[in-house]
C-alpha cells in the first residue's frame, strides 16, 4: 500500500469537498473539478501520465491516466481537453477501477455438453470459430457496438462485407441512435450534427427533449449550468415524461405524455406558420418540404409544396396538440413564441427519448424541421443536437458504418457505385460486396433464436464489446430462447461475465480501454486516439486482433474472400522491407501499430461524404479533432466546428452563408418534414394500466457490467429499482422499499420500489433503469421499432405493478 | 486511506435533523460541508478501507438519511484493493451489492 503525503491528501480532500458541494448547491451537478495535484504530477519514479478518452459516454471527456508498475493507479480530468477542460463525472473518476474487478475473463472458455465451461487455448478457439464460418459463411452474424474502437469496427466491417460478402453485421447502437442517423439523413442527406458543444456555451435557451443530460452526459450539462454560476442567463426548458435531475436545473418543466414530443414539434411549426414568425428568407433559400408518399414510409420521402405543408400543419392547432401531448395550450404557445424570436439562440438536445421511439425518425426530422423553419440553425448556440450514449457510436458505427446496410464513409451496400468504390479501396474483386442489406439487430436476434427448421437462418453469432443478453428488448423472445437451441452457436468476447456470456458456447477474454490502442469518435464529430498503457490480464486479447486472427484462419483454410485481388491476405501489413508482419499471431500484434494501418486505410473513405479525417499522427498530438479536418496551405490540419455554415465549414463556397452540400434534393437545401402524429404501439389499458419507461442512472454505465465492479459506484447505486408516483403507490398499498413485480404481456421482473426518489414520474407512469443484471427489466419491454431506423422503443409500453403476495397468488 | 466526497440526502431540510447531524459530527473522520435544503456535503478521510466501510454503513443506517451519493473518490491502488476485497464479500448489504449477484460463467 502506498502512503499519500499530507499535501496531496489535503488537495484531494478539498477536491472531494468541492465535488460534494457542487452537488449540493448546484442541485444536479455530479461533476467534479480536476484535482490539480493529480493533473500536475510530474512523470518520474515510475509514474507516467498519458491521455485517453473516457471509456464511457458519448460526451468524450479526456482523462489523464497515471500508470505505475504496469497498473493504472490514478485518473484525473484532462485540463488540456476542450470537451471537459479538466472536469469528469463520477463515472469518469472511477474509470480506472473498471480494469480491476476480480472476475475478469482471462482465458477462452468452451461450454461443454453438461453446461460447464472448459478452458481452451486461443488456437483451439480460433479453429472452432473459423470452421463454423467456413462451413456456413452466410448464416454467420457479427454483432458489435458503439464501444468498438474505430479500427475494431473497420476490421469487422471489412471482414464481413469485404471478405465474407455477408452484410449480417449490426451494432448495439441500432438500439440507441439509429433514429438519429435516419433523422439526419432524411433532413440533410448526411449523418451527424452540424453544430458542436460550443452551442451549449452560447445558447440563450436550452431545450431538452425527453433527455436527462444532468445524469447521462453530466460534464456536457455542466457547461450550461456553469454559465449560470458565472452570472450568465441561460433558460433551460425540460420537456419530459418524468422529472429528473435535469428538471431540477430547469427554469421550466413541461410534462408531456409518451409520444407527446411529435405533437409538440408539429404544434410549434403550426404556430410559426400561423403567426408568420418563421424565417421566410432562410426557408426560401435553404429548405424544401417533404413527407412520406401515400404508398408507404421511406427514408427520403417525396417533395411536397410549401402550400401542402401549410395545409397539413394547419391541423395541429395548439388545442389539438394540447390534447395529444398533455402540455397546456399556453405552454405550446410559449414554445411557438420562443422559436419565433430570432433575437435569441436556441439549442435543442436529445438522446434516447427521441431515438428509442416507434416514431424515432419522424420526431428527429421534426425537431430539425422546427429549427430550420424558425431559422434557429447554423449559428453558435442555434442548433438541433443529438447526443450519443456510447463513446464511439458516432466514430465507429455511424462513420465506419458498421450497420447492416452501410459501408464506410457514408456509403450503402444497396448502391452499386458505392460498392464499387469500396471494392476499389479494399482492393477486392468486383462483386465481392453483397448488395442486399443484412439483418438489423432485432431481426438478427429473431433469426438467431428461431429454430433453424422454422427459418431461423442465423446459426453462428459473434458478439463483441456488448451485452445483448441484458439490453435487447423483450428478452424472452429475442435472446433467452437461444438456450433451447443446440445447433445455434454463440461466441462472446467480453471482459467480465454477463448475462450474454451466460448463454455463450464460446467465451473469449477481451482487452479493454487502455489495455489496447484505440480511437473513438464522440457526439460532436471529434475523433480521439490513445495508446495502450497496460497489459490485459491473463490471456485476454484485443477484439481487433480476434477478428484478424479469425480471418487469417479462414485464409489458411482457403476461403477466397480472405484474399484481395492480388491473392494477399485482406489484413496484410508489411514492414519497411516489404515483409508481411504476422499480426494474426498475438505475440507479433504489437510489432507494428495495427490501429494506424487500419485507420489510414479507412481514412480514404472519409472524403466521399466530406467527413475528412487527418492522418493518424495528428490525433496522437491532439485531444481529438472534429471532422471534416482539412489540410491548410502551411501543412497544418484544421478542424470544423459548424458544418454547412459559410463562416466555418471549408466545403461551403466562399460568400455562401449556408450550403447543405449533401442535400437529398441536390440543390444545397435541407428538408423540412411533415409527419402525422401516430399513437404509441402499446398503450396502458385495464390489465396493464401503467406506462413503463426504462433508462440509465448516473452511477452506472449502461448494463453496469463495468461500473458494478467499481465498489464506489456500486455502493452509490447498488440495485435496480422501480420509481413510482407516490399517489399510485398509496392507492396500491405499496410501501417505500417494498419489492414488487413489474410485469407486461411479455415478462416480469422483481424490483424494490423507490417513491419520490431521484426521478419523479407522474401518476400512471413508472421508470426502471436497466443497469442491474439481477433485475432484468428488458424481460418486460416491447420490441416494436421505428419502421425506418429499426430502433426499438424502450421508453413506453403498458405494464402493471403487483405486490409480491398478489403475484404469488 | 480512502478520501471521498459524499452527499447525504435527508428526508426533510438538513437543519431539522439535529440529532442526525450530531451523530455525523461525532465521527472524527468526517468534515461537514455545505448544506442546501435536504442535501449535505461531507468529506470522509479514513485510515483504511475497513473503517471507511464502517462509516459508510453508519451513514446509511441513520434513519433520516434517505440516500448517500458519492461525489468523488480518490482513485489509487488502495481503492482497487478495496474493490477487490469487496467482490469477495458475500454478506454485503444492501442485498445486491456487487459480487453476490453477478453472472457466473
Ligand atoms: S462518463 Fe461521460 S461525462 Fe462522465 S467523464 Fe466519462 S465521458 Fe465524461
From TrEMBL, chain A:
<comment type="similarity">
    <text>Belongs to the prokaryotic molybdopterin-containing oxidoreductase family. NasA/NapA/NarB subfamily.</text>
</comment>
<dbReference type="GO" id="GO:0009325">
    <property type="term" value="C:nitrate reductase complex"/>
</dbReference>
<dbReference type="GO" id="GO:0051539">
    <property type="term" value="F:4 iron, 4 sulfur cluster binding"/>
</dbReference>
<feature type="binding site">
    <location>
        <position position="176"/>
    </location>
    <ligand>
        <name>Mo-bis(molybdopterin guanine dinucleotide)</name>
    </ligand>
</feature>
<protein>
    <recommendedName>
        <fullName>Nitrate reductase</fullName>
        <ecNumber>1.9.6.1</ecNumber>
    </recommendedName>
</protein>
<feature type="binding site">
    <location>
        <position position="352"/>
    </location>
    <ligand>
        <name>Mo-bis(molybdopterin guanine dinucleotide)</name>
    </ligand>
</feature>
<dbReference type="GO" id="GO:0050140">
    <property type="term" value="F:nitrate reductase (cytochrome) activity"/>
</dbReference>
<dbReference type="InterPro" id="IPR006311">
    <property type="entry name" value="TAT_signal"/>
</dbReference>
<comment type="function">
    <text>Catalytic subunit of the nitrate reductase complex NapAB. Receives electrons from NapB and catalyzes the reduction of nitrate to nitrite.</text>
</comment>
<feature type="binding site">
    <location>
        <position position="356"/>
    </location>
    <ligand>
        <name>Mo-bis(molybdopterin guanine dinucleotide)</name>
    </ligand>
</feature>
<dbReference type="InterPro" id="IPR009010">
    <property type="entry name" value="Asp_de-COase-like_dom_sf"/>
</dbReference>
<feature type="binding site">
    <location>
        <position position="147"/>
    </location>
    <ligand>
        <name>Mo-bis(molybdopterin guanine dinucleotide)</name>
    </ligand>
</feature>
<dbReference type="Pfam" id="PF00384">
    <property type="entry name" value="Molybdopterin"/>
</dbReference>
<keyword id="KW-0411">Iron-sulfur</keyword>
<dbReference type="GO" id="GO:0006777">
    <property type="term" value="P:Mo-molybdopterin cofactor biosynthetic process"/>
</dbReference>
<dbReference type="GO" id="GO:0005576">
    <property type="term" value="C:extracellular region"/>
</dbReference>
<feature type="domain" description="4Fe-4S Mo/W bis-MGD-type">
    <location>
        <begin position="47"/>
        <end position="103"/>
    </location>
</feature>
<dbReference type="GO" id="GO:0043546">
    <property type="term" value="F:molybdopterin cofactor binding"/>
</dbReference>
<feature type="binding site">
    <location>
        <position position="778"/>
    </location>
    <ligand>
        <name>Mo-bis(molybdopterin guanine dinucleotide)</name>
    </ligand>
</feature>
<feature type="binding site">
    <location>
        <position position="172"/>
    </location>
    <ligand>
        <name>Mo-bis(molybdopterin guanine dinucleotide)</name>
    </ligand>
</feature>
<keyword id="KW-0732">Signal</keyword>
<keyword id="KW-0813">Transport</keyword>
<keyword id="KW-0004">4Fe-4S</keyword>
<dbReference type="InterPro" id="IPR027467">
    <property type="entry name" value="MopterinOxRdtase_cofactor_BS"/>
</dbReference>
<dbReference type="InterPro" id="IPR006657">
    <property type="entry name" value="MoPterin_dinucl-bd_dom"/>
</dbReference>
<feature type="binding site">
    <location>
        <position position="57"/>
    </location>
    <ligand>
        <name>[4Fe-4S] cluster</name>
    </ligand>
</feature>
<dbReference type="GO" id="GO:0009055">
    <property type="term" value="F:electron transfer activity"/>
</dbReference>
<keyword id="KW-0560">Oxidoreductase</keyword>
<keyword id="KW-0534">Nitrate assimilation</keyword>
<dbReference type="GO" id="GO:0042128">
    <property type="term" value="P:nitrate assimilation"/>
</dbReference>
<comment type="function">
    <text>Catalytic subunit of the periplasmic nitrate reductase complex NapAB. Receives electrons from NapB and catalyzes the reduction of nitrate to nitrite.</text>
</comment>
<keyword id="KW-0479">Metal-binding</keyword>
<dbReference type="InterPro" id="IPR010051">
    <property type="entry name" value="Periplasm_NO3_reductase_lsu"/>
</dbReference>
<feature type="binding site">
    <location>
        <begin position="694"/>
        <end position="703"/>
    </location>
    <ligand>
        <name>Mo-bis(molybdopterin guanine dinucleotide)</name>
    </ligand>
</feature>
<feature type="binding site">
    <location>
        <position position="61"/>
    </location>
    <ligand>
        <name>[4Fe-4S] cluster</name>
    </ligand>
</feature>
<dbReference type="InterPro" id="IPR006963">
    <property type="entry name" value="Mopterin_OxRdtase_4Fe-4S_dom"/>
</dbReference>
<feature type="binding site">
    <location>
        <position position="516"/>
    </location>
    <ligand>
        <name>Mo-bis(molybdopterin guanine dinucleotide)</name>
    </ligand>
</feature>
<dbReference type="InterPro" id="IPR006656">
    <property type="entry name" value="Mopterin_OxRdtase"/>
</dbReference>
<feature type="binding site">
    <location>
        <position position="770"/>
    </location>
    <ligand>
        <name>substrate</name>
    </ligand>
</feature>
<feature type="binding site">
    <location>
        <position position="89"/>
    </location>
    <ligand>
        <name>[4Fe-4S] cluster</name>
    </ligand>
</feature>
<dbReference type="GO" id="GO:0016020">
    <property type="term" value="C:membrane"/>
</dbReference>
<dbReference type="InterPro" id="IPR050123">
    <property type="entry name" value="Prok_molybdopt-oxidoreductase"/>
</dbReference>
Amino acid at each position: 500500500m502506498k502512503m499519500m503525503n499530507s499535501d496531496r491528501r489535503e488537495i484531494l480532500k478539498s477536491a472531494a469537498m468541492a465535488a460534494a458541494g457542487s452537488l449540493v448547491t448546484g442541485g444536479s451537478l455530479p461533476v467534479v473539478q480536476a484535482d490539480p495535484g493529480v493533473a500536475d504530477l510530474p512523470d518520474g519514479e515510475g509514474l507516467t501520465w498519458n491521455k485517453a478518452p473516457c471509456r464511457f459516454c458519448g460526451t468524450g471527456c479526456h482523462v489523464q491516466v497515471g500508470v505505475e508498475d504496469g497498473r493504472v493507479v490514478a485518473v484525473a480530468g484532462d485540463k488540456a481537453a476542450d470537451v471537459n477542460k479538466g472536469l469528469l463525472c463520477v463515472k469518469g473518476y472511477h474509470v480506472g477501477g473498471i480494469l480491476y474487478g476480480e472476475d475478469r475473463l482471462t482465458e477462452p472458455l468452451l461450454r461443454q455438453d453438461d453446461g460447464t465451461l472448459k478452458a481452451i487455448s486461443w488456437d483451439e478457439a480460433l479453429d472452432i470459430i473459423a470452421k463454423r464460418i467456413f462451413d456456413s459463411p452466410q448464416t454467420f452474424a457479427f454483432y458489435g457496438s458503439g464501444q468498438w474502437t474505430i479500427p475494431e469496427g473497420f476490421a469487422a466491417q471489412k471482414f464481413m462485407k469485404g471478405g465474407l460478402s455477408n452484410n449480417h453485421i449490426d451494432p448495439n447502437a441500432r438500439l440507441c441512435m439509429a433514429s438519429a442517423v435516419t433523422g439526419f439523413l432524411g433532413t440533410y442527406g448526411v449523418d451527424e450534427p452540424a453544430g458542436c458543444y460550443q452551442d451549449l456555451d452560447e445558447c440563450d435557451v436550452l431545450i431538452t427533449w425527453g433527455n436527462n443530460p444532468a445524469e447521462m452526459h453530466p460534464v456536457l450539462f455542466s457547461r450550461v449550468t456553469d454559465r449560470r454560476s458565472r452570472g450568465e442567463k441561460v433558460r433551460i426548458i425540460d420537456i419530459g415524461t418524468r422529472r429528473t435531475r435535469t428538471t431540477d436545473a430547469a427554469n421550466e418543466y413541461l410534462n408531456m405524455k409518451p409520444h407527446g414530443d411529435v405533437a409538440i414539434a408539429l404544434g410549434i411549426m403550426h404556430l410559426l406558420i400561423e403567426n408568420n414568425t418563421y424565417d421566410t428568407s432562410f426557408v426560401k433559400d435553404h429548405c424544401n418540404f417533404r413527407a412520406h408518399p401515400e404508398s408507404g414510409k421511406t427514408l427520403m420521402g417525396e417533395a411536397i409544396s410549401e402550400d401542402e405543408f401549410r395545409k397539413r400543419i394547419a391541423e395541429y392547432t395548439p388545442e389539438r396538440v394540447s390534447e395529444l401531448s398533455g402540455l397546456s395550450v399556453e405552454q405550446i404557445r410559449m414554445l411557438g413564441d420562443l422559436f419565433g424570436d430570432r433575437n435569441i439562440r436556441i439549442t435543442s438536445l436529445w438522446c434516447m427519448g427521441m431515438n428509442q421511439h416507434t416514431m424515432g425518425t419522424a420526431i428527429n426530422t421534426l425537431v430539425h424541421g422546427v429549427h430550420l423553419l424558425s431559422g434557429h440553425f447554423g449559428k453558435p448556440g442555434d442548433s438541433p443536437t443529438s447526443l450519443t450514449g456510447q463513446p464511439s457510436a458516432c466514430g465507429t458505427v455511424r462513420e465506419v458504418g458498421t450497420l447492416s446496410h452501410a459501408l464506410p464513409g457514408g456509403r450503402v451496400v444497396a448502391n452499386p457505385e458505392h460498392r464499387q468504390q469500396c471494392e476499389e479501396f479494399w482492393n477486392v474483386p468486383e462483386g465481392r460486396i453483397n448488395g442486399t442489406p443484412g439483418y438489423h439487430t432485432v431481426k438478427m436476434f429473431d433469426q438467431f433464436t428461431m429454430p433453424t427448421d422454422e427459418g431461423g437462418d442465423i446459426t453462428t453469432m459473434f458478439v463483441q464489446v456488448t451485452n445483448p443478453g441484458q439490453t435487447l428488448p423483450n428478452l424472452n423472445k429475442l435472446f433467452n430462447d437461444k438456450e433451447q437451441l443446440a445447433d445455434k452457436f454463440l461466441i462472446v468476447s467480453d471482459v467480465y461475465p454477463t448475462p450474454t456470456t451466460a448463454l455463450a458456447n464460446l467465451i473469449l477474454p477481451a482487452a479493454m480501454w487502455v489495455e489496447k490502442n484505440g480511437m473513438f469518435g464522440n457526439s460532436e464529430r471529434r475523433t480521439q486516439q490513445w495508446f495502450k498503457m497496460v497489459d490485459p490480464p491473463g490471456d485476454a486479447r484485443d477484439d481487433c486482433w480476434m477478428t484478424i486472427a479469425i480471418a487469417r484462419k479462414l485464409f489458411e483454410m482457403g476461403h477466397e474472400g480472405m484474399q484481395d485481388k492480388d491473392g494477399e491476405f485482406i489484413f496484410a501489413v508489411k514492414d519497411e522491407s516489404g515483409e508481411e508482419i504476422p499480426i494474426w499471431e498475438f505475440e507479433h500484434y504489437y510489432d507494428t501499430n495495427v490501429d494506424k494501418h487500419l485507420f489510414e486505410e479507412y481514412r480514404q473513405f472519409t472524403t466521399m461524404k466530406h467527413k475528412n479525417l487527418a492522418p493518424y499522427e495528428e490525433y496522437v498530438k491532439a485531444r481529438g479533432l472534429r471532422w471534416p479536418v482539412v489540410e491548410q496551405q502551411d501543412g497544418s490540419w484544421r478542424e470544423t466546428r459548424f458544418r454547412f455554415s459559410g463562416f466555418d465549414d471549408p466545403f461551403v463556397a466562399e460568400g455562401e452563408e449556408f450550403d447543405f452540400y449533401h442535400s437529398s434534393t441536390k440543390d444545397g437545401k435541407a428538408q423540412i418534414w411533415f409527419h402525422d402524429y401516430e399513437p404509441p404501439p402499446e398503450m396502458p389499458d385495464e390489465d396493464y394500466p401503467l406506462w413503463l419507461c426504462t433508462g440509465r442512472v448516473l452511477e452506472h454505465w449502461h448494463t453496469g457490467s463495468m461500473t458494478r465492479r467499481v465498489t464506489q459506484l456500486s455502493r452509490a447505486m447498488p440495485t435496480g429499482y422501480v420509481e413510482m408516483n407516490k399517489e399510485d403507490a398509496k392507492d396500491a398499498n405499496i410501501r417505500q422499499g417494498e419489492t414488487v413485480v413489474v410485469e407486461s404481456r411479455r415478462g416480469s421482473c422483481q424490483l424494490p420500489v423507490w417513491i419520490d426518489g431521484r426521478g419523479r414520474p407522474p401518476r400512471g407512469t413508472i421508470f426502471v433503469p436497466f443497469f442491474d443484471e439481477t433485475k432484468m427489466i428488458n424481460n418486460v419491454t416491447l420490441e416494436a421499432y421505428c419502421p425506418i431506423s429499426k430502433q426499438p422503443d424502450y421508453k413506453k409500453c403498458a405494464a402493471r405493478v403487483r405486490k409480491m403476495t398478489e403475484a404469488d397468488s | 486511506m480512502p478520501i471521498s466526497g459524499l452527499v447525504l440526502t435527508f428526508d426533510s431540510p438538513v437543519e431539522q435533523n439535529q440529532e442526525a447531524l450530531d451523530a455525523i459530527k461525532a465521527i472524527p473522520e468526517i468534515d461537514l460541508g455545505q448544506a442546501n435544503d435536504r442535501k449535505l456535503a461531507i468529506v470522509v478521510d479514513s485510515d483504511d478501507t475497513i473503517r471507511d466501510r464502517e462509516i459508510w454503513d453508519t451513514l446509511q443506517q441513520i434513519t433520516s438519511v434517505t440516500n448517500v451519493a458519492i461525489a468523488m473518490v480518490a482513485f489509487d491502488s488502495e481503492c482497487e484493493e478495496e474493490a477487490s476485497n469487496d467482490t469477495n464479500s458475500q454478506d454485503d448489504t444492501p442485498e445486491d451489492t456487487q459480487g453476490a449477484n453477478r453472472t457466473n460463467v
